[in-house]
Amino acid sequence: MKRLINFTPSRIWRIGLALLPFAAIILLYISASDARLAENAADKLLPSFSQMGDAIQRLAFEPSKRSGDYLFWQDTVSSLRRLGLGMLIAASLGMFFGLMTGALPVLNASFAPLLTVVSLVPPMALLPVLFIVFGLGEVSKVALIAIGVTPFIARDIQKRTLEIPREQLVKAQTLGANSGQIILRVLIPQLMPRLIDAVRLSLGSAWLFLIAAEAIASTDGLGYRVFLVRRYLSMDVILPYVAWVTVLAFTIDYLLAQLSRFAFPWHAQQEGKS
Amino acid sequence: MIEIKNIWKRYGDNVILENISATVKEGEFITLVGASGCGKSTFLKMLLGTETPSQGSILLDGKPIPSEPDANRGVVFQQYSVFPHLSVLENVVIARVFEKTRLGFLWGGAKRAARQEAAELLNIVGLSHMQHSFPDELSGGMRQRLAIAQALILKPRILLLDEPFGALDPGIRADMHELVLDLWRKHKLTVFMVTHDLKEGFHLGTRLWVFDKRRVDAQAPNAYGAGITYDLPVGACEQELLDEIDQSLAVKSQVEHV
Which of B8, B64, B161, B218 is the most buried (most CB within 10 A)? Predict the structure, then answer.
C-alpha cells in the first residue's frame, strides 16, 4: 500500500471522484425535499425538481402573460449585457492605468498612491452616489461594475508590469527601441494573458456588484428576478436561477481560459515551467 | 576607442570600484574576472549605460558614453535576455523592426527582408531548425545562442556579455566559446565578457582583466573598492602567473562564501 500522499487516482477514478460530491448533494436534496413534501404538499422551502422544471418551463418557454416576453431569456440577456459592458470598460481602463503606472516611473510616482487609495473605497458604498448621479437606468449598474473592478485590474496589471524582468527592457533598448515601441511590442503582448487572468479573478466580484445593483433598482435581470420572487417564497424559481448564474459564470471563466491558451501559447508554457 | 578615466562607484559608504583607468582599442576581446561581488558586473553596467560612475568618466570616441542603453552596445545577460512572447525568428526580427518603424510593426517587403536576414543569422548560430518555437521550449544553450543572434543583427560596435555561459554545461560552453570567437572575428566587434570562470578568460579573447581589491581593511571590508589588479595580454604571459591569480581568487571566493 502506497503512502496516501503518493496515491494518485487514474483518469476514470478522478472523474468519478469529482462527480461523487455533486451526486451526494443532489441525492441529499431530493430526499430532504421528498420528506418535506410528503408531510405538507404545499411546502415552498425545498421544491422538487419537477416543480423547479415547471417554473423554468413557464419563465423560459412561455411568453409572460403581462408583457409577452420570455422572462428567463430576457433576464439573462440584460444581465450579461450589463456584466459584459462593465467588464469591458473595467478591463480597458485597468489595463491602461496599470500599464502606464507600471511602465513609466513618472506616472507611477504621481498616480500609484492614488490608485491604492481608490482601490480601498468600497464600491457598494458608492452605489447610492451612482444612482443619484446617473439615475436608476442602465448606466449606474454598468458604472458600479466598472468602478468596482477597475482598481483591482489596474493594480494587478501594474504589479505584473513591474514583474517583467528589467533585462528585457534593457535588451530592447540595446536593440534601439524607444519607450513607445517597448510598450507596444514588449509590455502589452506579455500583459494580455495576465489581463485575462485578472478579468477571470474579478468576475466573481463583478457578479456580486451586478446582482446587488439589479436587486435595488431594475426592471429585469437575473438579480432582479430572484429578489422579486423572494416575496412569494418562490424557491422553485430562485434555486434554478442561482444554478443558472453559476453555469454562466463557469462558462465565461472556461471560455476566457481557453482564449488565453489559444491566443498566447507561450504563456501556457511559462506557467507550466514555473 | 574607449577611454576609462579614474572611475569610482560608491553606494553610500560602500566603495565598489575605485580609481579604474584603462584604454581599449577597437576589436579587442576583454575578459573580466574576479571574485563574486567584486564589482565586475557593475563595471559592465556602466559600459552599458544602466549605471553611472560616481566619479570619473567613460569616453567613447572622445565623447562621454550615453547614460542610457542604445543600439551601439549589444548585450547578453545570463538569463531573461530574450522575449518569451515572440518566436525565435521574431525575437531576432524585432531588432530590425525597432530600427525601421516608429511604432514597432513592419509590413510587406520590408518584413520579408528582415525575416530573411534573421533566418540567415539564426542559421549561423545553429538555430534554424527552431525558428518557430518559443524561447521557453529551448534549452539554456539554445536560448543564449538566440540572445547572441538577437544582439548581433544590428551590428553593434560593442558587445557586452554578463556571465553569458554561467548556467550552461561544460560541453555546451565550449561550443558557445567557438561561436562567440567566430562571430567576434567576423564582425570585428569589441567584446567585454564578465565571467567567474578564470579558464574562460585564459583562452577566450585578447586581454584579461582581473578585478580585485588593492587594499583591504579587515575592520571595514567595504571601505575600499576593487580595481583592475592585472591587465594581461592573453597568450603572451606565463602559465605560472595565471595559476597564481587562479589561486588567489579561489582563496578569496572561498573566504567570502564562508
Answer: B161
CB pairs under 8 A between A and B: 88
pTM given for the model: 0.86
Q: What gap in Å lies between CA A7 and CA A5, rounded to an integer?
A: 6
Sign of the Cα pseudo-torsion (A11, A16, A17, A22, in order): positive
From first to last of the 258 residues of chain B, give the pLDDT tens digit: 888 888 888 888 888 888 888 899 988 999 888 877 788 888 999 999 998 888 888 999 889 999 899 988 999 998 888 999 999 999 999 999 998 888 778 778 888 888 998 999 898 888 889 999 999 999 888 999 899 999 988 889 999 998 888 878 888 888 888 888 888 888 888 999 998 777 777 777 888 888 888 777 778 777 788 888 777 777 666 667 767 777 776 666 555 444
Residue B241's nearest CA partner among B251, B228, B231, B252 is: B231
Instruction: For residues B107 and A173, give the distance between their C-alpha atoms in angstroms, rounded to a whole number.
Output: 22
Of A175, A265, A273, the CB nearest to B94: A175
Sequence-distant (≥ 6) Cβ neighbours of residue B23 within 8 angstroms: B2, B3, B4
What distance in Å separates residue B255's CA from the closest CA in chain A? 30
Enumerate the domain spans of chain B. Answer: 1-72+193-258
Distance from the Cα of B163 to chain A's closest Cα (Å) equals: 13
Contact B180, B162 (CB under 8 A): no
Across-strand partners of B190? B158
CA distance B186 to B205: 14
Closest A-chain CA to B78: A167
Cβ-nearest to B75 among A170, A186, A269: A170
Give the count of beta carbons closer than 10 Å to the beta carbon of residue B224. Answer: 14
Report CA torsion sign: B230, B231, B235, B236. negative
CATH topology of domain B1-72+193-258: Rossmann fold (3.40.50)
Question: Do B16 and B27 touch, CB atoms closer than 8 A?
Answer: no
Does A172 reach chain B within 8 Å, measured CB to CB? yes
| CA A36/CA A180 separation, integer angstroms | 67
Cα–chain center distance at A261? 19
Q: Which domains does chain A have, with CATH numbers?
A: 84-265 (1.10.3720.10)
How distant is the Cα of A111 from the closest Cα of chain B, in angstroms?
25
> In the sheet where B55-60 sits, what is the strand order?
B63-64, B55-60, B2-11, B14-24, B226-233, B207-213, B29-34, B190-194, B158-162, B73-76
Q: What is the CA radius of gyration of chain B?
A: 19
- This model of the complex carries an ipTM of 0.86
Query: For residue A169, what is the nearest residue in chain B, using CA coordinates?
Result: B81
